Amino acid sequence: MSNLRQEFIAFSVQAGVLKFGEFTTKAGRQSPYFFNAGLFHDGATLARLADFYAQTLLDSGVEFDMLFGPAYKGITLASATSMALAGKGRNTSFAYNRKEAKDHGEGGTLVGAKLTGKVVIIDDVISAGTSVRESVEMIRNAGAEPCAVLIALDRMERGGKDGQMSALSAVQEVSKNYGIPVISIGNLSDLFTYLSADPSLAQYKDAVAAYRSQYGVE
After folding, report:
1. Average pLDDT, stretch 126-137?
2. Half-sphere exposure of residue 8, counting CA atoms within 13 Å on the CB side?
3. How many angstroms separate the CA atoms of 190 and 197, rounded?
4. How many helices (H) and strands (E) does the chain have?
5. In this predicted model, what pLDDT tens digit does every residue of 54-96 receive, in sequence order?
6. Of 56, 107, 183, 195, which is least surrounded by CB within 10 A?
7. In degrees, to the nearest 5, what angle opens at C-alpha 57 toward C-alphas 118 and 43?
8. Percent of the chain at pLDDT above 90?
9. Which residues lie closer than 8 Å to 208 by C-beta, 6 or more apart?
10. Under DSSP, is residue 133 helix (H, G, I), strand (E, B) or coil?
11. What's the pLDDT tens digit per position in 162-207?
């Protein structure tokens, strides 16, 4: 695991964004951990998070022209990442969408820079892929090209209901369906490695291992 990925998992735990215990996921599964990017809600933690996004994107080698943040969490993430990229010498425009169309002023559902060129979609996680699908459609309808999806954490778990699970994770399905890479700052493997190295969290290691064995993908 790279130092950046290690640092991101540690940062998420320290910020209380990544928690361990017993949680029910959106899919109805009992998960031993929970990641809530909505808890990055002060200036210092958001700035640090944006730096992780920006550096991960630059390190990926993906060619891009601008960022797009799907409402609602993606709005903050895209704008903050744009600022972090500027701080690293890469001034990058961004845009986002409204949930409801505006019928006055500039109108429509898109706000910010005109969608053009190669566009990176930025969000916190991918659950069902609905947000990505809508974003891809908006970007393509504007004549631009979605070139990658950038997320904070890849849970690396198979979609579908128990007994009818997909062979692929939501992230893998998005990459396959749209032919674009999904880049994550950290993933479940990074999280497990972190647990193995931190004695104070050792009590959760077996539960995470069991969860990964039941639902995980390589």
Report:
1. 88
2. 27
3. 11
4. 7, 8
5. 999 999 999 999 999 999 899 999 999 999 999 999 999 999 9
6. 107
7. 115
8. 82
9. 20, 32, 33, 188, 191, 192, 195
10. helix
11. 778 889 998 999 999 999 999 999 999 999 999 999 999 999 999 9
**In the prediction, which pLDDT does 2 show?**
67
Which of 187, 57, 169 has the alpha carbon at shortest distance from 120? 57
Kindly state the DSSP code that residue 18 receives in the 8-state scheme: E
Catalytic positions are 102, 104
Which of 177, 122, 189 shows the shortest CA–CA distance to 150?
122
Q: In 117-213, which ranges are E strands?
A: 118-122, 145-154, 182-187
Give residues with Cβ within 8 angstroms of 145, minimum separation 6: 117, 118, 119, 139
CB 68 within 8 A of CB 98: no
What is the reported pLDDT for 60?
97
Please state the rounded mean pLDDT for residues 122-138: 90
Is residue 169 a contact partner of residue 159, using CB atoms and an 8 Å limit?
Answer: yes
Distance separating alpha carbons of residues 210 and 166, to the nearest angstrom: 18
Q: How does strand 30-35 pair with strand 18-24? A: antiparallel
With beta carbons less than 8 A apart as the criterion, state whether 17 and 185 touch.
no
Instruction: Show the tokens assigned to 113.
Output: 């820079």
